[in-house]
């Protein structure tokens, strides 16, 4: 069962998201929040697997809220229960049109996926499951914004990022390139002739080495480091 926290400033939208997600047999809505600030507090108390953030672009605290929600958890004493299976929640951001730049900032803050606000119900529920599993969900417009931002930032970031890239083994670079190309773990396993469990292990090691919180940040790193080049 995947636990979800719904965040939206408008009660009608929160209700709609709540009802849609709660209707799925493998999803349970454990709480709601009306803002990024409240989402941080509620998430810390409930420890959901996924936080679905709605009208974040209008919230001046939205990016900081994502950063605080997804930051690594402080180790607890052995006598206390560990929330969320010992890892911080993953964040799925619902993006309105024209806010791709904000989506990039949210990605850098730790968001694990993006979906248009007008996505179909089955797309939303599928995205929640994908993000909960640690995979990335994004859209062509957000990907385009990521590439554009990399083109602008990379000259000033090259040395820092290349140092991080040097920490990866040749096989890890192969896997990261495949991840940045949008391949699933199963596709990577088939194309690189390795076991799916090995792919998962490589991805975990890559995230740890580059300091990424989710798979989608690894995609950003692949572009920023120059491992993957944006198409002209």
From TrEMBL:
Residues 3-132 form the Response regulatory domain. It comes from the Bacteria. It holds the Pfam family GerE. Keywords: DNA-binding, Phosphoprotein, Transcription, Transcription regulation. Residues 161-226 form the HTH luxR-type domain. The keyword Hydrolase does not apply. PANTHER family: TRANSCRIPTIONAL REGULATORY PROTEIN NARL-RELATED (PTHR43214:SF24), TWO-COMPONENT RESPONSE REGULATOR (PTHR43214). This is Response regulator transcription factor.
